[in-house]
Amino acid sequence: MPTKPAPIKKKPGLKKVEKAAPAPEPAPVAPPEPVPEPAPVTEAPPAEAATPAEAPPPAQAEGVPPTEDGETPATPSAEGDQAAPAEGEGGEAPEPEEPKAPTPPPPPPKEPTSAPLDLFIEDKNDTSVTIIWSQPEVVGSSGLDGYVVELCQDGTEDWKSANGEPQKSCRYMIKNLTTGDRLKIRVVAVNAGGRSPPVTLPEAVLVKEVADRPKVRLPRFLRQRYVAHVGDKINLTVPFTGKPKPVVSWSKNGQPLEKGRVNIRTMERDSILFIRASERDDSGVYEMTVKVDDFEDKASLTLQIVELPGPPASVKIVDTWGFNVALEWSAPKDNGNTEITGYTVQKADKKTGDWFTVMEHYHRLNATISDLIMGNTYKFRVFSENKCGVSEEAAVTKDEAKIVKLGIESKTPEYQEHDFTEAPKFTTSLANRATTVGYSTKLLCSVRGYPKPKIEWLKNQMVIGDDPKFRQICVQGICSLEIRKPVSFDGGVYTCRAKNNHGEVMVSCKLEVRQPVIVEAEKK
Fold first, then answer.
1. Which of 51, 105, 147, 478 is deepest in the core (most CB within 10 A)?
2. pLDDT tens-digit profile of 422-476?
3. Contact criterion met (CB below 8 Å) for 323 and 371
4. Separation between Cα atoms, residue 159 and residue 156, nearest integer Å
5. Per CATH, which fold does 117-206 belong to?
6. Is 220 strand, coil or helix?
7. Is the N-terminal amide bond of 202 cis, ω within 30° of 0?
8. Topology at the third CATH level for domain 422-514
9. Taking all residues of the chain, what is their mean pLDDT, rounded to a whole number?
10. What is the greatest pairwise CA distance in the chain?
11. Residue range(s) occupied by CATH 2.60.40.10 in the chain
């Protein structure tokens, strides 16, 4: 029978042992089995290697059975001033530290991006301003975290962030502004390397509502080249819109207009370009600009002042033969500020001196004048032509062209008469036919020959003649024989014979006349 463990009495003056953590309550312990006597220890461990966990267990109190896990309960030492170490405190040896990996070299320093590009105002009203920009030209390996929009009052440098957190979008609306404030706005790109140089609007922005953006309403006829003649009065009206009233300015070929030559008169809704007497120097590209605060619109028109061209630079007679004269000339030095559209060539007989037009709207720089009169002497002149008309002066040939008389005899050539005679020849033969009793049929063939051959039809080698049952026709070499309502007797071999003074030829075919099929029901 197992004995009941005796209770352990506390000695006076024994200190209470503080444990690192309270041990869980043990489960109900079954009555312990009798503990066998321990085997004798053969070798004791060295004293320096012993650890608190490896220390020999204290002697088992007499009559005290071991616990469930085989350990005996701790008992106070003989001195009575210390308790046995708590279970699990200092019971394991510290593990050896693992060797640390070598420290990698520090990464290269990160650089900020370049400044954003193309910052401008997209829209604004009395409480907000919308700006837009482009991403930096150089971003770098560290990428781009976003953009910070900053603003401050004009005249100060107290910059404040408008968007708080950096944003990825290249467009931002600054809200909750005070009407009438004049603000400076800039944008900074941010990445791991820090802030980029800022891009700032060139001018401070006045927070003010734009009721109507400026717009130039260029008329349709001014969207193409406007052409006028030298001396014409130019009066071009260009409407525009915008609120408040836009500021209107004009330029010519990118330069400000010269006062005096061109007059500009701007009204509430349109601007007028006025020239009293146009000159060729007034030609060019005129640009009209309307501006309301930071918003503007532009439109351009091309004005071309033209006049009559000058005469060709030179004209000369190149060659003369028979009744013909070859001329050549060169383009005029002055084209009248527009392209040359053609030339007009005239001739004059030396006897009369009257000029007659030979060619108009001629585009080439050389021509041949024909049908001249034998024995006469001619001069020639050439006018230039553009969209304004024909040049006032002409280039005249210095030399004259004389058409020399030649001894010409008219001799009619002799021709041998062609022999068209030909023996008859069938170009289309007769084809075998089959017909039904009572149904008319027709036989066809074609023949040629000269003189016109005589046509005869034969049935079974017997001439048909003028039998009214047959109808014979021959027109333009097409020969036909119509058999009216044939009967079984009309079947056989039909022949067409053609003959003239140069020969005779025949073609034949077989005609079969069948009985109609009678249905058995009709027989009954």
1. 147
2. 999 999 999 999 999 999 999 999 999 999 999 999 999 999 988 889 999 999 9
3. yes
4. 8
5. Immunoglobulin-like (2.60.40)
6. helix
7. no
8. Immunoglobulin-like (2.60.40)
9. 80
10. 176
11. 117-206, 212-306, 315-402, 422-514
